[in-house]
User: Fold these one by one.
Assistant:
Number 1:
Amino acid sequence: MDLVNYLYLASILFALGATTVLLRRNAIVVFMGIELMLNATNLALVTFARMHGDITGQVLAFFVMVVAAAEVVVGLAIIVTIFRARRSASVDDVNLLKS
Amino acid sequence: MTMQTLSLAPWLVATPLIGAALLLLVGRRSDRWGHWLGVLASTATFVIGLVILLDMLAADPDQRVGVHTVASWIDVGPLQVDVGFQVDPLSMTFVMLITLVGSLIHLYSVAYMSHDRDRRRFFAYLNLFVAAMLLLVLADSYLLLFVGWEGVGLASFLLIGFWDHHLPNAVAGKKAFVMNRVGDMGLIAAMMLMLATFGGVDFSTVLGSAGAADQGTTTAIGLLLLLAACGKSAQLPLQAWLGDAMAGPTPVSALIHAATMVTAGVYLLVRSGPVLEAAPDAQLVIAVVGALTLLFGAVVGCAKDDIKKALAASTMSQIGYMMLAAGLGPVGYAFAIFHLVTHGFFKAGLFLGAGSVMHAMDDDVNMRRFGGLARLLPVTAITMGLGWLAILGVPPFSGFYSKDKIIEAAFVGEGWRPWVFGTVALLGAGITAYYMSRLFFMTFMGRRRWVTELAGGAGREGGSDGTPVRHPHESPWLMTLPMIVLAVGSVGLGFALNAGERFVHFLEPVTGHAEHHDPVLPIWLIITLTLTLVAAGLALAFVQYAMRPVPTTPPPAPAVVRAARVDLHQDDVNEAVVMLPGKVLTRSLVFADRTAVDAGWLGLAGGVGRFGTWLRGLQSGYVRQYAAMTLGGLGVIVLVIWLFSGQGAS
């Protein structure tokens, strides 16, 4: 099987994630889009590692997972706090910091 | 000269400087005794000077020049300047003139300024002036001289504008300061040229190697020194500040604008003698400037009704004589200094006398409202009378010896020069006689053009026909004593110094020995002509101002007199020639600055500001928009990498 197909899959997943982030208002869904993008990147990294016969990409994928896990914890905490304060999970309602 | 007395030289400058510093730093607490401290500092300086002078006179003539180096001042590569004091007959002559006349004027000021609440500050400035002037004449390099030169300018500025609560006085001080700056530029440029040509600015280097230098260079240095001298000595074309400088208190006019500061230019030129001798063209220009100023001052002096301004014009004219003599070369240096010394005495005496008259006449300076004061102010009238005879050059008063020598020296030479300079000097003597006699007669003789209340009677409080009410009284002894001493100097100094050409020989270690040349006219004829012209001027003034009544308002007069009343339009000329073009230049520069430079930078700043405002619009607060921009940015980066490196590598 051609390894390039994995890259096509990664690109499609990344595009899906990015579209989700850009188009959806619900913070939880946006969050899921981000996760999708991160995992698409991981897939690409692992594929590259396989293509080059080098484990650097795999190591990098582990780092991304760790950081993503931490990010999920912090991000969800923020979303929950904002929802409690403002009764809304829409990212468009959180625009108070603009000048 | 012994080392002990030579090492006293720094104290000549330090003593009055300490006096000034004390008076200024202690402040109002010294109001009660400050003026006496000022007198003490000045007198102590005179005593120190006298000690050095006596020691100098005891030494052989070739042992009379000494330099006392105190410290190294500037030590950068080729430029080595020491703080050194040049003690020689020329500088000691000035030291004696400055400290003696200065001390007398300090004493006079104690009484003259007794009603002024800032008398202490006045004495601080007087001491500062004496210190600066002494530094000027004792410096052993042009650079140190320049320090004193600027100090003198500063003291002059402070003293002219002493009563600065009255706006014209402050303006006069500023005018003097600014016009002096023009001359200072000349001295600075001259020092630059000296440094470039001779590699130093101390007298021994410059004067020692001036003879070997290129004549074009020495001419340039000579002309720049002349510019400096013109500024300080109020010579054409920088003469306009002197008349306005009379806004200062009268002792200032006597000390600074008659006896000492204005002589600094003559000192500079005589000191720079070897440079000028290597530049005949510069010498000619100096003589011409002196001759022109001599006539200019004399003409202005004839028309002035303000007693102090008439004396100021006379100062200008007399210093013109000195400049003329300094421009004649070694034959004239000693006579220039001789006239400077005698002039210092009689002019200071005349100014102090004028101050005494003003003191008696409620600070009025208009001679048209004086008259008949001789009986009421006998001491003032006699001392001023002696000064008047001295400046006229009536034998045997001191002006006769000094001025006559200059007139004789002006007649020495070849070609057209002796005839022109000699005639101008002769003519100047005649005009001097006229305007000084006019001043004396208008003040002390003739009908009284003022009234006392008693003589005026009730109902006529004066002023109805322009005659003011006055109560003239003789000045206190503190004022008359200095006048008497100066009058004695006006009478006897010329004879005493001239006997056996004593003074000329005394100065020879500095000015060099001048070969004796015969004038183009026999000496007896020159003296006769001079005295005839002086007598004619005196007689004319006597007829006009002592025998005939003097109108209390200036009568209509021909154009030349009207011009002389406004200083021959010197201010108009300065405005037209210098001020207006300067104004146009600065205005156009300001315009160019605003339209080109400022507009460019302001436009740039405005552009950045507008760009920032536009950029701010992107900060909408919508997270998704930010995410889109991040994604777009990523796309751009990928595109750029693909275009420039990815494609190039493949």
Number 2:
Amino acid sequence: MIEAKNVSKSFGEHLVLDNVSCRFEESKCNLIIGQSGSGKTVLMKCLVGLFTIDKGNVEYDGRVFSKMSFDEMKVIRQEIGMMFQGGALFDSMNVEENIMFPLSMFTDQSLEEKRERANFCLSRVRLENVNKLFPAELSGGMKKRVAIARAIAMNPRYLFCDEPNSGLDPLTANVIDNLISEITQEYNITTVINTHDMNSVIEIGDKIAYVHKGKLWWEGNKDTILKSDNPELNEFVFATELTRKLK
Amino acid sequence: MLKGFLFHIGRYILLMRQVFKRPEKQSIYIRQIMVEIDNLGLDSVGIVAFISTFMGAVLCIQMAFNIDTPFIPLYTIGFVTRQSVVLEFSPTIISLILAGKVGSRVASELGTMRVTEQIDAIEIIGINPATYLIFPKIIAVVLINPILITMSMVMAIMGGWLAGILTGLVPTSEYVYGIKAFFESYDIIYALIKTVVFAFLIVSISGYHGYYTKGGALEVGASSTKGVVHSSIAIIVFNLILTQLLLS
């Protein structure tokens, strides 16, 4: 379980996160949703320690992550897998090397063992015969899947996904959502997903946190979100003509 | 302006402290150093050889045309060519050229990695990105640049000799005598000390600008330019300081 306790973060004069407290549960897809500029990416980056928080705490199963030094954070970071919005695959490495990279850095596995693990992770995200391709040769959906494969290479306890299906067609987006959900349940991972895609919310939102103007505005799940009477949340959820008609 | 300068100096020193932290897995870093020697060093052999040969030739011809009195012996051409090449041309001018080539490559590579979140990805994995990305580059360039500069000296002197015999301005015997005349091995040590310092400055300053890039493609270009300009300025300033320290 990951817990954000009264987290605040400013950039200069601009307060981006204002006293956000939220709990992200194990074996569940925890979604952070909100409009562009609402602070959800900043919240995720504060959770993983890419941004230093001004106030509050971030705890990983009771371990106060936000107060740790860089070297202390390393221990927890080896339990974290993260999929970035653009994939963030290393351009100079092929797919296989990208997935084997954390294994090479932190394990003493032989090349054969690492290859086996990379192949397993690739099969887990339903990709085959792409081992020797470079990121520039992959489609958007393939990059996202390779990013997931790299994120799960070290058997993480915590998985973070930043906009996993942005820029993808609805079918591929659905495949990515289902993959994340399957992996979360199969390996009992605490998964935190940053999205503004309503399809993902309805599909995999075991727990949903709605961030609005830097504050945690609403919490619930995929069943309660459509019945909420929160006006700001409803404005976000039913923003399109299609969703309004469906409602 | 002073505040901005001090801010960058402070952040540069902090980054260097990160860079020289103990690496996570030494075998990986040794491999990375080899890769960077290939990317940043061996890749520059052609341009260094080409420029050095032609500059040596020009130096020799210019000296020959400027000596128009029979009281100055012809071997002076070889002597002055050697001294110019060893003391200044190869260590400083070639380092400035490498600041353009290597510096822009380092800054744009790191800048692109920053804006595409690859540096964040390395940090999330639990690796110190400053050490992983910048340390091997510094070591590679510090190791390979003295070899490149030594090669540059040889090529420039050869270029001077070729120009001398092809134009008929200096006979080989006079040129070779001049090359060997009044030779002080300390000159080579002085040149190589400068080279090592310049190599460090090129990669660390360009790396600094690349590492802290913010924004997108435009900012990557700006970081690359800043890396080249600032490392060139640093080379010029440190050239004066080192010359004063080592030759006075």
